[in-house]
Amino acid sequence: MKFRYSEWQEGKRKGKLTFDELMKLFNQLLLHSNGSIDEALAWMTELDKEYNVFDDKNGLGFDDFLEWLKKEGYIEENNDILALSHKGSKRIRQDALKEIFTSLRKRSLGEHESPHTGQGIERLSETKPYQFGDQAANIDFSSTINNAIRRDGLDKFNLKEEDFEVYETEHMTTCATVLMLDISHSMILYGEDRITPAKKVALALAEMISTRFPKDSLDVVVFGDKAVEVDMADIPTIAVGPYHTNTKDALDRAQRILKRKKNVNKQIFMITDGKPSAIFTNGRLYKNPYGLDRKIVSQTLGSARACRKNNITVTTFMIARDSWLVDFVKELTEICKGRAYYSSLNNLGEYIFVDYINNRKKRFR
């Protein structure tokens, strides 16, 4: 497990963490432990032995914190088994979102908008002459009356159709997103935990969409030997396994999900650290972890080509620089006319969030 260190602040004493600060630490450990509350609490006791994170003298001890978690409704206890509650799941998403937005505080994310004007839901300050079909609720009465007075004067006030002006409205796009997370074995190889930052991004993205863009949709698919849909509440429990990388199965499942959506824009975000190394043929798993197997690559690129045909944008976030991965992603991106980024684990969230917000300003079709 890795920890991020920051500059020492003189006067900041050990053992003075508030319940909220302890909660943030607890949530971080929950992601590392794949949602295991018992394991996360055990890690906190180990950290306390080393760094005095609890403060028993001031009512901020381990038992106090555990009782606070139950009292606040973040965890539930049934038959001595601790489980994360709905409120606890939401708190994890909120903390993940806050962490990413804090790193983006110097950026201007803009709004969820499109450059196309029309009968939308967001009123602009600009006005235009009334046209048949414009909504009466958008009439600018001040400009309309001024037009009539300007033409005939106040004494001969006579309102005509050409006097009417309405506010421009901005078409607000909606977007259906499938976030694909690679859970192949390489995501935890060489002592680097790549899956926890990916899960944190998924949690933050889910919270942002549900609170800021409720008309959008987000689905999460994990892929190793095969692709599986994951419920939002189960994101913290996502774990890496001894799997290969079946990118084709993930792209196919993502397309089936998006086919059901009625959103204006449809896109796939893929977070991966490995080249495709498996496909299904005649119901059986065909795998080759060595190099770029042309049979696997060909069929995977075929799925990418189908995404382009179905107006689905594929954006790949590479969290490794393996030459096989780079070569494959370059070819996939060219075929589906998508985008690709190399991202370190520290700025993965920034890349994805900026890309997501910016894409709301245009139509994919």
Overall description:
It contains ten helices and twelve strands. About 7% of the residues have low confidence. It is 39% helix and 20% strand. It folds into three domains: 66 residues, no CATH class; 54 residues, no CATH class; 185 residues, 3-Layer(aba) Sandwich (Rossmann fold), CATH 3.40.50. The protein is flat, with a radius of gyration of 26 Å. With 365 residues, the protein is an alpha/beta fold. A six-stranded mixed beta sheet has the order 7-6-5-8-11-12, with helices on both faces. A two-stranded antiparallel ribbon has the order 1-2. It has a two-stranded antiparallel sheet with strand order 3-4. Helix 4 crosses helix 6, helix 6 packs parallel to helix 10 and helix 8 packs parallel to helix 9.
What structural keywords apply?
Rossmann fold, two-stranded antiparallel ribbon, about 375 residues, alpha/beta, six-stranded mixed sheet
The appropriate CATH architecture of the largest domain is 3-Layer(aba) Sandwich
CATH topology of the largest domain: Rossmann fold
Uncertain stretches of 5 or more adjacent residues: 10-15, 106-124
Give the helix proportion (percent range). 25-40%
Shape: flat
Rg value: 26 Å
CATH superfamily of the largest domain: von Willebrand factor, type A domain
Q: Kindly report how far apart the N and C termini lie.
A: 43 Å
Mean pLDDT score, rounded? 86
So what's the CATH class of the largest domain?
Answer: Alpha Beta
Strand content: 15-25%
* Adjacency order of strands in the biggest sheet: 7-6-5-8-11-12
Number of strands: 12
Number of helices: 10
Biggest sheet overview: 6 strands, mixed
Helices and strands, in N-to-C order?
HHHEEHEHEEHEEHEEEHEHEH
Instruction: Tell me the number of structural domains.
Output: 3
Structural class: alpha/beta
